[in-house]
Amino acid sequence: MQNEPDPDWPRFVRTEEAARLLDLSPRTLEKHRCGGTGPVYRKLGGRVVYTIADLRAWIEGSARQSTSEMAKIARKPDRTLAEARRAGR
Model pTM? Predict the structure, then answer.
C-alpha cells in the first residue's frame, strides 16, 4: 500500500517550481525574497521552500485596482508641501 499524503499537511515547492507557478524567473523570485517583497518562505534542511497557500496569499495581496495605488503607499513624505514651503522662506 502506497503512503497517501496527509491533506492537512502543506505542500512545499522549491524556488524553481514556485517561480514557474507564479510565471516569474527563479532569479526574480530570489530578488523578491532578499528584498522582503516576496511570498513567505521557509528553510528546511538549508533549502528554501514555499507553500502553495503562501504563494496564493502573496498573489491575492498584490491585487490592485489602479496603478496609482502603489505610488500612494510608497510615497510617504517626511513633511507636507506647506511645511516645505515654510522652511524655504
Answer: 0.67
* The three cell numbers locating residue 52: 502553495
| Domain containing residue 23 | 12-88
Query: Closest by alpha carbon to 37, among 77, 76, 73, 9?
Result: 73
Mean pLDDT to the nearest integer, 16-35: 96
Q: Which residues, listed in sequence order, are joined to residue 51 by a DSSP beta bridge?
A: 12
Q: How many domains does the chain divide into?
A: 1
Tell me, what's the pLDDT at 83? Answer: 64
Task: Look at residue 6 and tell me if it is in a domain.
Answer: no
**pLDDT band at residue 68, thresholds of 50, 70 and 90?**
confident
In contact, 54 and 44? CB cutoff 8 Å: no
Kindly state whether residue 83 falls inside one of the protein's structural domains. yes
